[in-house]
Amino acid sequence: GKIQRKVMTSLKTTMVRRKSTTTDYDADNDDSSRIEDDEESLVRLQQQEFAAELDNEMFEERERQMVQLESDILDVNEIMKDISDMIQEQGAVVDSIEGNIDTANVRVEEGNQQLRSASRYQGKYRKKIIIFIVVLLIICLILGIVLAVSLHHNDKYTTTTPKVSK
Predict the structure, then answer these.
(1) Three-class HEC string of the chain
(2) Which has the higher per-residue pLDDT, 36 or 144?
C-alpha cells in the first residue's frame, strides 16, 4: 500500500524530470542515448529501492508476527500454569474427600461391630433377667410352701392339743 504509492510518486517525478531533460538534449543524439541510459539506470534504481522497501516492510511484518506469536505463547504458558494449579488444588480436594471416605468407612465398620456387641450384651441381659425371675419365683414358691406347711402344722397342733384343766 504505502510503498506502492511512494514508488508511483517517485516514478511520476522521474518522468517529469525526464521530459524536461529530454527537451534540452534533443539537439544532440549522443545526449539522447545518455538520457536513455540514465533513465534505465533510474528505473533500475527505483526498482531496487522498491524491492528494498518491500523487503523492509515484509521484515517488519514478520517481526510483528513473531512478537505476536511470542505474546501468544506466553499467554498459553500462563494458561497452562493456571490449569496446573487448579489440577493440584482439585487433587488435594479429591485426596481429602478420599481420606474422609476411608475414615467414614472405618467408623461405620466400628459402629457395626459395636452394634453386634450391644446386641449380644442385650441378649445376655435378657437371659440373666429371665434366670433371675425364675430363681425369684422358685424362692417365692419355696417360701410359700414353707409358710403353708408351717401354718398348716400350727393349725394342727392348736386344734389337737388337749386343754389341760386344773
Answers:
(1) CHHHHHHHHHHHHHHHHHHHHHHHHCCCHHHHHHHHHHHHHHHHHHHHHHHHHHHHHHHHHHHHHHHHHHHHHHHHHHHHHHHHHHHHHHHHHHHHHHHHHHHHHHHHHHHHHHHHHHHHHHHHHHHHHHHHHHHHHHHHHHHHHHHHHHHHHHHHHHHHCCCCCC
(2) 144
